[in-house]
Amino acid sequence: MAKFVKVNVNDDDCLFAAFGKLGTNQDAKKSVLVKEGESIEGVITEIKKSKKYGSIYTLKVEKEEKPVVVTGKTDLNKKMAAGNAGVNDLVRITYLGTTKTDNGFDYKNFDVEIAQE
């Protein structure tokens, strides 16, 4: 019979990207704030699937000592998938701000660029 061991994640080992503003539970010391019109650029080191976020991307960002975790947003996930973004790809994610859908709902809008050799 298999023995299960609980896996703990240490949030001190990474930073979290915040687009537009920090979330109510986000610690500024553990976050990288990307304001409207700004970009975050890095190499994807890991992609995890998530029920809540669709995908969670870990980036190695040159100016940050710790990896930066980017939780997928609907628009971001669509554009990362359309570009076939994968591990070891250099990506630039630009936050364009909040946009309204035809139904009047707000969503976060992004440009995604993937470096090509």
User: Please, what is the average pLDDT?
Assistant: 89
Radius of gyration: 15 Å
Query: How many runs of DSSP E, i.e. beta strands?
Result: 7
The low-pLDDT segments are none
- What overall geometry do the principal axes of the alpha carbons give? globular
Measured by DSSP, the beta-strand proportion falls in: 35-45%
Strand neighbour order, sheet with most strands: 2-1-5-4-3-6-7
* Largest β sheet strand count, sense and barrel closure: 7 strands, mixed
Helix content: under 10%
Q: Tell me the number of helical segments per DSSP (H or I, 4 or more residues long).
A: 1
SSE-based structural type: mainly beta
Distance between the termini: 48 Å
Instruction: Return the string of H and E elements.
Output: EEEEEHEE
Describe the protein in words.
By secondary structure, this protein is mainly β. The chain is 8% helix and 44% strand. The chain is built from one helix and seven strands; from the N terminus they run βββββαββ. The protein has one helix spanning 74-82; strands at residues 15-19, 31-34, 39-50, 54-60, 68-71, 90-100, 106-114. It has a seven-stranded mixed sheet with strand order 2-1-5-4-3-6-7. The N and C termini lie far apart (48 Å). The mean pLDDT is 89.
Keywords:
mainly beta, seven-stranded mixed beta sheet, 117 residues
Condensed summary:
With 117 residues, this protein is mainly beta. The chain has one helix and seven strands; from the N terminus they run βββββαββ.
Topology at a glance:
Blueprint: E1 15-19, E2 31-34, E3 39-50, E4 54-60, E5 68-71, H1 74-82, E6 90-100, E7 106-114
Parallel strand pairs: 1-2, 1-5
Antiparallel strand pairs: 3-4, 3-6, 4-5, 6-7
